[in-house]
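hey can u check if this looks right to u? its 432 residues, i copy pasted from the old doc so theres a chance i mangled smth
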Amino acid sequence: MPSVTELHSILKSSKLKTEFELLYGLSGKNIDKQIARYKRLINEFKAHFGDSDLSLFSTPGRTEIGGNHTDHNHGRVLAGSVNLDSVAVAVPIDEAKITMYSEGFDAPFIVNLNELNVKEDEKGTTTSLIRGIAARFNELGYEIGGFNAFISSDVLVGSGLSSSASIEVLIGSILNGFYNDSRISPTEIAIIGQFAENNYFGKPCGLMDQTACAVGGIVTIDFADPQEPIVKKVDFDFASQNYSLIVVDTGGSHADLTDDYASIPTEMKAVSRELGVAVARELKMDDVVENIEKLRNKVGDRAILRVIHFLGDNERVVEQVEALEHGEFQLFLRMVTESGNSSNKWLQNCYTIKDPAEQGVNLALALSERFIHHIGQGACRVHGGGFAGTIQIFIPNENVNDYVKMMRPIFGESSVYVLSIRPVGCYQFKLQ
């Protein structure tokens, strides 16, 4: 591993150019920006920990492309890793302690690796994620050890691009690289991250986010068995269609939305239990329709509608993958629109009933649909968990500037992300 001084020299040379192009695209301007970013983080590491032999890690954010709220009921999803990421400058240490500084935070996150039980007062914090990931490594028989790190993420919190999953996979990748010879698969790193978020952080998330961040590229994931999800790469280049993938952050706080998110899997599973199974994946539409009278009395209408969404979107993922694999991009876009309509009408995750006056997601969708109607092509949908946050839109490259000019004055200068699909997931730079 190179020292701080040596690493600065490596960044100035062309040695890492291929790796930067792989992670961030071919744009020289973008690569220069990333090199400056890494230099800044290396200097921050040195300021906190001194000069050391260093390693560099990167984990992408993710964009959900198909299957909205299907993963937590053992369904299918379609997702892609993106060119926004979380990065770490790190070094292993002999002490059984992880110390991690994060850009924008004054105090470090510190975990004693001899204390790996759940701490109730830590829930909802980055410290809880570090502790939970280390605990699960240990439970599974993998090696753990201390490290010092300085991290940064441009996967903004609340952007709908899975900032927490990106950090979880980054932490797991550091432990994997330093203490397990990188032999743990990306899929298992993802499962460990989900364990930490569910049990230590306290959020009942599915597994899509972590898997998409860890594996990379465009992937379809089947969670019929959540402990052994079937992950399949989808060979398709959005850029070849002269289309851009854009995510718009409409604002709104996610701080009080945990109950909204949790209600979705809870209600789907309530319907499933009434029909004698554990999760919605085990149901057929006829099962639901034939028992609607009974279900209405037991679980209520919204729970039924949410299962109807699940069953439709779960099958739609298969159709979306087939459309992409056969190069039928316009068919794929029609299904993006169908998925968005299903989320809005039946899943009902475009605003929270706690504050019906705030409907940034629906406002952004209304404006986007009007824009698409005007240009005659494209598709949009709610993105990710919903209730607040982001939408996703696919439009031709020639229309991107006009769309950005329309949306930024309404939702903020930093609200619109024009993304590209990153071909790799969790990544340790080859510095030797």
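The CA atoms of residues 109 and 378 lie 43 Å apart.
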